[in-house]
Amino acid sequence: MKEKVSVTDTGIQSSGLPRDYMEAVAEYIWNGFDAAASIIDITFETNEIDTIHSLSITDNGTGIDYDQLKETFGNFNDSIKKATFQKTSSVIKGNKGRGRFSFSAFSGKALWKTVYKDQATGKLHAYEITITKNSKDYFDPHNKRELAKGATGTMVTFTDLFDVTGFSFQSDEFKTFLEREFGWFLMLNREKEYQIRINGAILPYQQLIAETDIGTLPLKDAEGKDHFFKITFVRWSERIGDKFFFYFLNSHQKELFKDLTSFNNNAIGFYHSVYIESRYFDAFNPQDNELSQNLFERTRQHGVFKILMNHLHELVRLRQKAFVDGEAAEKLVDNYEKNGIIPKLQDGRKKKALLKVVKNLYCIEPRLFQGLNREQQRINVGLLGLLLEAGMKEEVVELISHIVPLTDEDRKLLR
Question: What is the pLDDT of residue 359?
Fold first, then answer.
């Protein structure tokens, strides 16, 4: 029997659903991971002219509980996941209940086949749900039955496809999109061997890792007890599908919470993630911000955690500095030379000195060079060149000190 969604079809369509098939597919992958899946399979078949008639996304998650359909498929811009959603965790990615309608970006009909375990009886049940593009405000659950054996999970199949071919889901563009969107999450759950597969081929993400480093940090608490933290720093070569976080995992590699690093507002391409694993987080309550100490539970006010956070922020600061001093500064100077920003100087030594000053200024404060158009870049670098050529080195240092605060080390570097 058809059920009504708590909004009209027009309301659903105008709510900001994905308009691109890649974003739509990503929504269903996230739905699978939200349902505690570890493997997501994208499968399809093409004919001789690269046409596909259907595409399926299958997960090995917990399935969709029939008794909760009104809270899941029946609600829009709200969902049962929202009740337990925490912004401090990556465990639940989607929390607005829109994902199930995303198929309308490339498909006319979606059919869910799901198997779940009844919480009261422990028995397996299966059923199907159908939604069509032209009447998204109705969903049709049907064929509910009990199973003697099997495994939980959900397969959603899309038919009446449009604006896509087999190449759409085999192209490097599609795979790169998924790598950027899910690479950080697959890395986060690497110990659990999370996978996304396209027609059986595992989606890689390691090629997006520009550099990685793994170390162990030992810390003692006030009672003299040792705590060990495995810290994995990752710098990505491209922007990823999440902000830049510290991810905190317990001894079972389960993520308990995450905190933003302090470098989310920079525009220098320093894409990074930091994963911290420790038994210390087995008895940790990240939601408790009280100053009181619980004998059986650690909080953010615990002395060891405060020391850990200072270490993590310093780690990222030094990594960013090394990135700016090396790759980012070299890239800036190379781009300036290629685009004619650096003035033509007959004296090779003066040009070398100017390039060095530009590079070091960028290392001290990258924001000085962000958001400028080509003409502004030429003016800034040209003025620097004129001041240096006139022997006004001290004046350059003083001028910069009025724009950004300089440490003694910064001043020494510039001089």
Answer: 79
